[in-house]
Design brief:
By secondary structure, the chain is mainly alpha-helical. The chain has helices spanning 17-41, 47-76, 84-89, 92-122, 143-178; strands spanning 128-129, 133-134. The chain has a two-stranded antiparallel sheet with strand order 1-2. The structure holds protoporphyrin IX containing FE (2 copies).
């Protein structure tokens, strides 16, 4: 797909429906996985905790697969160019933050679940996706390695949550303060 330029007078150029569907599906899934992860951390060991850990792992692996799909889609389908007036009104640092947060989010969408997977494998608790499909271990069983990886899964999940918070704050600033309708680029619908 070619980048669509959008003169001020033309209707707002949107992301493709596929990109929009993946954005909102993954927004809900990633935030849920983060909150379940935090909740898990403080639960005492019990069968209920083990069940929830499995759901967290299955959700995380699904997020990983969808994020790979999303990245491939993103690299092969360029998003529409920012509308001229918005691009012109953004100072350099804002443009850098805009692109920087997007790039870093994509990196963390892959790194966080991969570290979760590596932690599970190193801890000797391999993943059986949805209880039926055993996934390979890509690190050996090693309790010391598991202890080293675990905090990184949590820390990077926090870094991702922080970036997402900055991203949402930026989107809301465009909507409520600049009132430039930027959010419409990521919503299906008219015009
Ligand atoms: C985007 C996806 C994911 C997010 C946002 C996420 C987030 C989190 C968070 C915030 C924690 C609590 C960590 C802490 O505060 O120290 C956690 C724990 C954990 N996560 Fe994930 N995670 C994801 C994917 C995965 C995947 C794919 C796996 C494994 C296949 C996994 C396995 C675990 C395990 C085993 C724990 C520790 C539970 C415990 O023993 O307390 N996570 N996750
Ligand atoms: C109220 C919540 C949210 C709003 C209003 C929102 C809005 C937007 C908008 C308008 C864009 C397009 C920016 C542009 O014009 O190019 C965008 C892109 C993006 N959003 Fe969100 N978003 C929200 C939540 C989230 C969450 C929770 C995540 C991640 C978990 C996320 C991840 C992304 C990513 C990675 C992009 C870059 C898309 C690309 O260019 O490939 N967003 N978002």
């Amino acid at each position: 797909m070619k980048p669509a330029s959008s003169p001020a007078s033309s209707p707002l150029a949107r992301y493709s429906l596929t990109a929009i569907a993946l954005h909102w599906m993954l927004a809900v899934a990633i935030l849920s996985a983060f909150l379940v992860g935090l909740y898990l951390e403080d639960l005492p060991f019990s069968p209920a905790k083990l069940k929830l850990i499995n759901w967290h792992k299955w959700a995380g692996v699904t997020i990983l697969a969808l994020s790979v799909l999303r990245l491939v889609w993103r690299l092969t389908h360029r998003p529409p160019a920012l509308p001229e007036p918005i691009a012109r009104s953004m100072p350099g640092w804002q443009m850098a933050a805009f692109h920087g947060t997007h790039h870093l989010m994509y990196l963390l969408f892959l790194a966080v679940p991969l570290l979760g997977w590596a932690y599970s494998s190193a801890a000797g608790r391999p993943i059986v996706l949805f209880g039926v499909l055993p996934l390979p271990d890509f690190v050996p069983v090693d309790p010391a390695l598991a202890d080293a990886i675990k905090p990184w899964h949590g820390n990077l999940a926090w870094a991702m949550a922080l970036l997402v918070a900055m991203h949402v704050a930026g989107a809301l600033k465009h909507q409520l303060i600049d009132k430039d309708g930027l959010i419409g680029r990521m919503l299906p619908g008219r015009g």
